[in-house]
Each structure stands twice: as structure tokens, then as C-alpha cells.
Amino acid sequence: MSQEHQPVAAPPKVARDGRVSLMTVSGVIAVVLAIAALTIPVPYVVESPGPAINTIGTMNNQPVITVAGHPSFPATAGSLDLTTVHLTGGLPDSQINIFQALQAWLSPSNSLYPAELIYAPGISQDAVNSENSAAMTGSQENATAAAFKALNIDFKTALAIASIPDDGASAGILKPDDVLLTLDGKAVTGLPMIQAELAAGKGKPVELSVLRAGANKTVTVTPKAGTDGKFLLGISLQDKFTFPFDVTISLSNIGGPSAGMIFALGIMDTLTPGNLTGGKDFAGTGTIDPDGNVGAIGGIAQKMIGARDNGANYFLAPSANCSDVVGHVPNGLQVIKVATLKEAYDAVQLVGSGKDSSSLPTCK
């Protein structure tokens, strides 16, 4: 008996749903786009606490403040810390992504700002470093002048040219670092005097005597009218000091003008016998001018965090920054508001002598 072999039926074909493939591809694309989005730079700057450095201490085993040609009295205890912030992002050669920006936004110790609020468009890190370095040098000179004035140490001040725009009236005639001596035969006493003479001349050429590289030179400049109608020489000015002895502040990788007040306090402490701080730990921030006025700065919330993290118990804050201080003071840090170098010095001296500090002014 023979058997008939039936052919084996092929398995039924399953229709492939095109929607599944489309969803898979769409998912892959979404993941790729999400990853790409996390790596795309965003135009924001993260401001975070930076290091605090004791101006009456040492850095890299060298005193931060040294004096040559005059008795000095280095501190043996206590601290007068300058405070800093660290900025990340916002520059062509320093950028952050959306994930980093989100982290900063969620962090209680960081702040997030649109880049245009911090930097000029297209500026490079090298340019920023150069500007900060110049500002730091200026703050150190102003701090020395303010400290010397407070201690009644005589020094000379002259008005020098800081910069000249290419389209200014003095372009190609005056040079940076020229010291202004006379204007039409009258001794240059300051910016108000220059402005008054130019206004009286109504745009007529003026004769300027300057000190350039140690030699006197006379030049003629024709002022240009500015947008407000005032006649201008087209220069920016800076104080140039001649001190009777050398004060050197040695720091690296730190820029900007905000350490001026603390530098001045450190110089005063170094030039006077005794220990101003009484062994206590202070920190602070604020610009300084040669007359000892303390000015506002940025990033004070982060600077207070950095100060407390470094062990400071007292923080000297510019009065003009009080609105930024309130609500951001770390636990254990007493904030003392100051408007002048004298107020700052008196506050440190009072605390350092062991007296009650509760009556000192603070930000409210």
C-alpha cells in the first residue's frame, strides 16, 4: 500500500506594519536629535563661586603683598580674603550646552545669565583676560594710593592717557601713557579743568604739553564735538601714581577690579605694626578709588559662598551691593556693609580687637 505524500503548507505570510518601522526610525532620529541638542552650545554664562585668597598670607609659598624700601609688618594670623567668581561659557572659545545650563539654573550656588549681559558680542577669551589683567593692575594701584592716603603717606599723582579711539581727535597725535602737563599754558589739574577749557575754546585748537617716555613734548589737537555737543579730545584718562616706595601684589590667574578694597586693607595691615584682624578671618569684595570710596561689583552671592567655604566669619560688602546680598548670606557669615575704606578698616579693627560686632551696619 502506497502512501500519498501531501505537500507541506508554507507558513502564512505576516503582513509587515509600516507604522512600526516608521516609529522605530522616528525614535532613533529623536534620540540622535536629543543627543545633538545636548551638545549644541547655548548663549549663556554660568557664574559659580571661585577661590578665596588671603591677601595678608602667601600664595605658592610667597607673600601676596611685599614692601620694598619701607618697614613692613607681615601678619602672622588671621585673614583678609579676596573673593572671586568663576565664569564658564558665553565666549567663542568657552561655551556650555543646554544640560550644563540646566544644571547651573538648578544649583543654589550658581547663577545663569544671558551671554550678552556679561560679554561684548564676539569677544575672545584672550581679550577678556587682557581686559581683566588691566583692571587688576589698576585696582592694585588704586588700592596702594587709597592705603597711602589713609596712612598719610605722601605720593605724586598725574593724569595720563589710558587709550585713544581711532576716530578720536587725538588719534595719531597723543599716545597712551602720555602724562598731561599743561593745556594752553595752564597746569592740568583734572578732568573738570580740561572740560572747562575745551568748552570755553568752542572747538578751537589747543596746545598740550605732555611727558612722553621721560621727555617733554608739545602738540596741538583740534577738539571734536561729541553727540551731546561737548568738545572732546578723544582720549580716556587714568591716574598715574609715583609712590615713595614699592608695594607689590603677587597673584596669578586672577583679574578684574573687585579686590581693590581688600588689597587696600591688606596693604594698610602690612605697613602698620600689630595684627589688624586680631587673628580672625575676614573676606570681602569691592572696587576702590584713590580717595578710598568702595564701589559695587558683580557675583557677590557666589563670593559670599566662596568666602564661607574658605572659613571666613565676616564679610565686607559694598553698600551699593546690598540689594544683591539680602537673601543670599550663607549661615555663619556676618555681612558688614561699607562705603569707604575707612569704614572697612574701622570694622576690621573693631572685630579684631575683640569688641562686640553686633552694632556694625549690615545689609537689610
CATH class type of the domain at 48-86 and 135-153 and 245-352: Alpha Beta
* Contiguous runs where pLDDT drops below 50 for at least 5 residues: 1-5
Distance between the termini: 111 Å
Class derived from helix and strand content: alpha+beta
Description:
Helix content is 29%, strand content 27%. Mean pLDDT is 90; it is low at 1-5. It contains 8 helices and 22 strands. The strands form 7 sheets. It has a 6-stranded mixed beta sheet with strand order 8-2-6-18-21-22. Strands 9, 10, 11, 12, 13 and 16 form a 6-stranded antiparallel beta sheet that branches. A two-stranded antiparallel sheet has the order 1-7. It is flat, with a radius of gyration of 31 Å. Among the domains are: 48-86 and 135-153 and 245-352, 2-Layer Sandwich (Ribosomal Protein S5, domain 2), CATH 3.30.230; 156-242, PDZ domain (Pdz3 Domain, Roll), CATH 2.30.42. It is an alpha+beta fold and 364 residues long.
Brief rundown of the structure:
The protein has 364 residues and is an alpha+beta fold. Among the domains are: 166 residues, Ribosomal Protein S5, domain 2, CATH 3.30.230; 87 residues, Pdz3 Domain. The protein has eight helices and 22 strands.
